[in-house]
Design a protein that fits this description.
two-stranded antiparallel sheet; binds iron/sulfur cluster; globular; 6-stranded parallel sheet; TIM Barrel; about 40% helix; 10 strands; alpha/beta; about 350 residues
Length: about 350
C-alpha cells in the first residue's frame, strides 16, 4: 500500500461520521495490506467517502474528527491520483468528499474545490459530492457547485440555541443558514443536509419544525439523519446514545413529507405529548388515528396516506377502479398492494355512500 493509499484508508475511516445516504455507502473494511471496500444495500453505489483533512481546529462536542490529532491530510493532487486509480480499477464509482477544518475555512474549501476540478480535468465523469464547510465563501460554493453533482452543508442541529450547546464555535445563522441559502441558489435541487439526531436533546417536534422550514425555504433534495453516538473523550461522552430506530423513524417521516405530500401539521399528530415519535412507522400511527379510506372513492391524496400504498399503488388503484370497483383483498392484490398493511385501513363500500369496513 502506498503512503497516499494508507492516508486514504485512514481518512476514509474518519469520514464515516458524515452521511450522504441512509447507510454508509462504502465502508473501509481493512487498512492492512490492501484496501477493501464493501457496498451496503440501499446506498448510493460504490461511493468512496473520505476526508481531505483528518483533523479539525473546531471543537464540536459530538464529532470524532476533533479527536484526531495526527494531522493527517491529503493534498488535492494526492486525493485525485489515488481516487482515480481506484476508479479506473472499478473499485469505486463515486466520491463524497468532506474535510475537517485543518486550517481556516477558506483554505480547506479551496482544497475541496481544487480536488473536484482536478478530477474533472482528468476525465472523471462519475458522481461527485462535495461538502460545503460552515462559513464558506460564496465563490467557493459557486466553484463546488460547478464541478460537483451534489453539494451539501450540514445543519447538525435544529436551531441556533441547540447548535450553541454542542458546537458553539459555529454561528448557526451566519455560518450555516446563510451559506445554505447560497448553496440552494448555486445548486437548486442538487443539495442535501444532515442532522445529528439527539446530540442537542432536541425533540422530534423541533426537528419537524426545522424540516418544514427547510422544505419551504431552501428545498434540499434529501435530509440525512445521523443517530448521535457518544464517543469516549468527547464532552458528550456520557450523553445517552440516540437509539437507531429514532433516525429510522425520521427517514420514514421525511419520506412522507417529501414524496407523499403529508404536511408537517399532519405529522404532528403522530407525536406523543412530549413531542417525540413512538417507535412505530409514522404512516401507520397517522392512519390508525384516521377513519378507514374507501378504496373506491378516495382521492389519490387519501390513498397515499394508507400504509402499504405508495404513489405507484395509488395510481394503479385509480386506474383499475375506473373499470370496476374493488370488492376485496383479491382486487388489492391485483393492484400489487398487500392486504396485510393496507387492509385494515381501507373499506370497499362501492361507489355509494354505504361503507363496509374490511374484516380480515
Ligand atoms: S467543524 Fe466539522 S469536522 Fe470540525 S469538529 Fe466540527 S463537525 Fe467535526
Amino acid at each position: 500500500m502506498s503512503v497516499a493509499e494508507q492516508k486514504l484508508a485512514y481518512l476514509t475511516a474518519a469520514g464515516r461520521f458524515d452521511l450522504c445516504s441512509p447507510g454508509e455507502c462504502l465502508r473501509l473494511l481493512s487498512a492492512a495490506s490492501h484496501v477493501t471496500y464493501s457496498r451496503r444495500a440501499g446506498g448510493c453505489g460504490r461511493m468512496l467517502k473520505v476526508l481531505l483533512h483528518g483533523t479539525c481546529s473546531y471543537d464540536c462536542a459530538y464529532c470524532a474528527v476533533r479527536l484526531h490529532r495526527e494531522r493527517l491530510s491529503l493534498s488535492p493532487g494526492e486525493l485525485a491520483d489515488t481516487f482515480l486509480g481506484l476508479w479506473r480499477e472499478g473499485l469505486v464509482g463515486g466520491l463524497f468528499l468532506s474535510s475537517g477544518i485543518a486550517r481556516d475555512v477558506d483554505c480547506v474549501m479551496h482544497d475541496i474545490v481544487e480536488t473536484g476540478e482536478i478530477l474533472r480535468r482528468r476525465g472523471y465523469d462519475g458522481y461527485l459530492h462535495l461538502k460545503v464547510l460552515p462559513g464558506a465563501a460564496r465563490a467557493d460554493i459557486h466553484g463546488a457547485a460547478r464541478v460537483a453533482d451534489r453539494i451539501s452543508i450540514n445543519l447538525e442541529a435544529t436551531s441556533s440555541d441547540r447548535l450553541g450547546g454542542i458546537a458553539g464555535v459555529k454561528d448557526y445563522r451566519q455560518d450555516i443558514l446563510k451559506r445554505q441559502a447560497w448553496v440552494a441558489e448555486e445548486k437548486p435541487g442538487g443539495h442535501t443536509t444532515q442532522l445529528v439526531v439527539g446530540a442537542a436533546d432536541e425533540t422530534d417536534a423541533e426537528i419537524l419544525s426545522c424540516l418544514a422550514d427547510q422544505y419551504r425555504r431552501v428545498r434540499p433534495s434529501r435530509v440525512y439523519f445521523a443517530a448521535f453516538r457518544a464517543l469516549p473523550g468527547t464532552p458528550l461522552a456520557s450523553h445517552p446514545d440516540t437509539p437507531a430506530w429514532r433516525a429510522r423513524r425520521w427517514y420514514q417521516a421525511d419520506y412522507l413529507l417529501r414524496e407523499y405530500g403529508v404536511t408537517a401539521d399532519e405529522l404532528r399528530a403522530a407525536l406523543d405529548e412530549e413531542g417525540f415519535f413512538p417507535d412505530r412507522d409514522p404512516k401507520v400511527v397517522l392512519a390508525d388515528g384516521n377513519a378507514p379510506v374507501n378504496v373506491n372513492l378516495a382521492p389519490r391524496r387519501d390513498l397515499l396516506r394508507v400504509p402499504g400504498i405508495g404513489p405507484k399503488g395509488a395510481d394503479r388503484i385509480l386506474s383499475l377502479r375506473r373499470v370496476r370497483p374493488f370488492t376485496g383483498l383479491a382486487d388489492l392484490a391485483r393492484a400489487g398492494i398487500g392486504g396485510k398493511a393496507a387492509g385494515r385501513h381501507l373499506t370497499f363500500g362501492g361507489r355509494e355512500a354505504v361503507q363496509t369496513k374490511l374484516v380480515l
